[in-house]
Amino acid sequence: MQQDTFWVPDDLTVVHRPEITYLSSQRPMKFTNAVIRTKASRAQMPGLIDEVRAAHAHTTSRWMQYPSHAGTPLMEALGDAGYVSTDVHDGMTLSVEAFVPKPASSVVVRRVADRQGLLDCIDVCGRAFGQSFSLPEHQLLHELALCLGPTARSARFVAYDAATDEPLGSGGINRYPNQRFGLLWGGGTIPEARGRGVYGALLSARVDQCRTWGATMLGLYAKTTTSAPIVAAQGFRRGGQMTYWERPRA
Fold first, then answer.
1. Which domain holds residue 41?
2. Which of 6, 34, 92, 141 could serve as 62's disulfide partner, Cβ 3.0–4.6 Å?
């Protein structure tokens, strides 16, 4: 599924060849300057690393390492090239049928359907993850277009305080119809609203979206030390890990 780059912003370059798939962008963001698939021999690795280094020279370079890379020369080659393993994520999955919602009466969740909703989503996501995101107008329109219409393969949601309408959290989901699968991403709650059931409410909304799409399974990569215990409490089961290898700006 990671090879399906339907979701990438229109200012990204996608390089896709049998041995590698990577993204690059002049925006200095990790997820837009990342290698998302590697299937290369030991002899190919030095040249590929040099190519990616040049493409990501302006920012931090991220390389995603999956269980399928076990026994390959990838990790050794990345270490030799100055990449360091950082965040480890558990691959977590749940059957849509098995999900048990946990209502939160003080929270209302709305699907992003217009520009203001998208702005709320971007702002609250930044606050939840301690980062600052801003997009030019044309990029906002592109991101919004991905979420709208009957054939949309993405959906974004924002959780609001039921009394004050303050944005409290956000979360997205991408649709992979051939696998009948929904991939969760960007789920987060602002620090002052944690413990109020915001994440559970956002999860419930995205499970409902899976049902609308006809998806039977959903999953995500959950950071082992933070998000994984939260989604495990919601019934998700672990099935492998993904590790980010990063190299600072060259």
1. 13-82
2. 34
5: in domain: no
* Residue from 196, 181, 195, 124 nearest 157 by CA: 124
Classify the phi-psi angles of 85: left when phi > 0, otherwise alpha if psi is within -120 to 50, otherwise beta: beta
Instruction: Tell me the CATH number at 131.
Output: 3.40.630.30
Q: CB within 8 A of 187, min separation 6: which ones?
A: 169, 170, 171, 172, 199, 202, 203, 220, 227
What one-character-per-residue DSSP string does 118-142 give? HHHHHHHHHHHHT------HHHHHH
Q: What's the alpha-carbon Rg for the chain, to the nearest Å?
A: 18
Helix pair angle (137-147, 115-129), 10° resolution: 100
Dig out the tokens for 88 from the structure: 């480890």
Q: Are the beta carbons of 160 and 166 closer than 8 angstroms? A: yes
Answer with the residue of higher pLDDT: 132 or 13. Answer: 13
pTM over 0.70: yes
Could you tell me the two tokens for 124?
């609250």
